[in-house]
Amino acid sequence: MPLHFDNRFVAELPGDGNPDPRTRQVTGALWSPTAPTPVAAPRLLAVVPELARAIGFEPSDWASEDFARVFAGNAYFEGMQPYATAYGGHQFGHWAGQLGDGRAIALGEVVGADGQRHELQLKGAGRTPYSRHADGRAVLRSSLREFVCSEAMHALGVPTTRALCLVATGEDVVRDMFYDGHPKAEPGAIVCRVAPSFLRFGHYELPASRGDSTLLERLIDFTLARDYPQLTGSTEQRRGAWFIELCERTARLVAHWMRVGFVHGVMNTDNLSILGLTIDYGPYGWLEPYEPEWTPNTTDAQGRRYCFGRQPAIAQWNLEVLAGALATVMPDRTPLHEGIARFGAVFGSEHLAMTGAKLGIASASEDDLPLMREWFAVLGAAELDYLQAFRRLAQAPEADDPVALLAPASYAPARFAANASALRTWLEGYHARLVRDGRPAAERRAVMDAVNPLYAPRNWLAQQAIDAAERGDTGELDLLMDTLRDPYRAQPGRERFAALRPEWARERAGCSMLSCSS
């Protein structure tokens, strides 16, 4: 199984040349050579065959002991050159200085069997120069959550990093899950993340913050050459076009998050991708009752900076911060201003189009905004489940009693009853709007079902897979992953994966809110 590594990041950009994993400030360099720390007993828990084949593996490869050893950090395939990267970031709106890959170690860049670039990165593989006071490890619960959600988002059609495999380490990791003074030992695991690039906004912020314009310009031009080769013109023109395209990609990304009900939970600038991908699945969550101010992150419980409804505004804020860093080497600020304006315009048009498709409205326009806002208001007032309500709405116009059809999607029957009249009034206006479209019901339902997922990696579903995996049983994980690969089509016998959040999960740790602890 020969893999073709070209490792352009380390080949073309300066590193610090020091393989010592002890914490330090790294200046004048973008990466440090960093070897994963071997683990006691690596064991493959799960693999994504489709992605493995795209990279160049065959089933016999991932069935071998060597595969688990490599993706636990105990061995290397030929051509791998491990490293950790340096970046900074704004965390909860404040500059945090140097951050870097504190528990992520890249193994290298593969040009896969599919002809695409795949950077392989181990998360939880041990200390790096950027680990600060941490151990660089990750626990099974957070690793499994990232593994599941990365692939679920891919199946949902949301731009995302991927996950190749999940490996148990055979070692315990001590974590204080809610930072409340009650640490405990948990089983450790490592997830192999995959993306064309793991560059984040913070990679550009760090050299800019230090006044290292030479390093910043090298990184920008490397990004243009490797990740945006389609851009043409002079260096200045390409840099400007790159930022504008990044703003557009980020706008589409967040519109998709809003479409499927995803809440990232920690949209710091070091957690936004330079390719417009969803990156860093930490304390994420899925809307269940429609609550625009809901955040899954316990650290954000008071300020709710990263709640569902604020994600578009925060994405724009992060782009503005990145623009400030790029402005230090871009004398002409016009493309930076144009990029921010494009973010707003593209998000507005994409969000309108996606919401229109979710409601089955053909060629939605701004005239439909009042109808859309009223629907979301009723969703919240009646405490309707975000995913189920849209799926049931597809059947409502032809139902004898559309209000009754929607009732099972509510978490609070009393609140639903109190808002039934408002819902019925809205449904009448909605039906009139559909009549104006004149589209056949079957066609409309097909459009709605294609954008409104039935299955998503709700936290309580992931928690059930975690509980079983911690007991040594990966059957629940396999079944969940298999279901999430086809999220828009009803799968007989899998009804429990589309159910409302059960009462036991309302307050349980890991099912309602999470911390950044892993």
The total of beta strands comes to 11
Please state how the strands of the largest beta sheet are arranged side by side. Answer: 2-8-9-7-6
Overall 3D shape = globular
Assembly context of the chains: single chain
- Contiguous low-pLDDT stretches (5 residues minimum) are none
Indicate the percent of residues in helices: 40-55%
Proportion of residues in β-strands: 5-15%
| Rg over alpha carbons | 23 Å
Main β-sheet description: 5 strands, antiparallel
Tell me, rounded to a whole number, the average pLDDT. 96
Number of helices: 18
Describe the structure.
This protein has helices spanning 8-12, 49-55, 59-62, 65-70, 140-156, 201-209, 213-227, 235-260, 311-326, 334-359, 369-381, 386-393, 402-406, 413-418, 420-437, 441-451, 459-470, 475-484; strands at residues 31-33, 43-47, 83-85, 88-91, 94-98, 104-111, 117-123, 162-175, 184-195, 262-263, 285-286. The radius of gyration is 23 Å and the shape is globular. α6 (201-209) packs antiparallel against α7. It folds into three domains: 8-199, no CATH class; 202-357, no CATH class; 361-438, no CATH class. The longest helix is centred in the middle third of the chain and has 26 residues, at 235-260. The model has no long low-confidence stretch (mean pLDDT 96). The strands form four sheets. It has a five-stranded antiparallel beta sheet with strand order 2-8-9-7-6. Strands 1-3 form a two-stranded antiparallel sheet. A hairpin with a 2-residue loop joins β4 and β5 (94-98). The protein is an alpha+beta fold and 518 residues long.
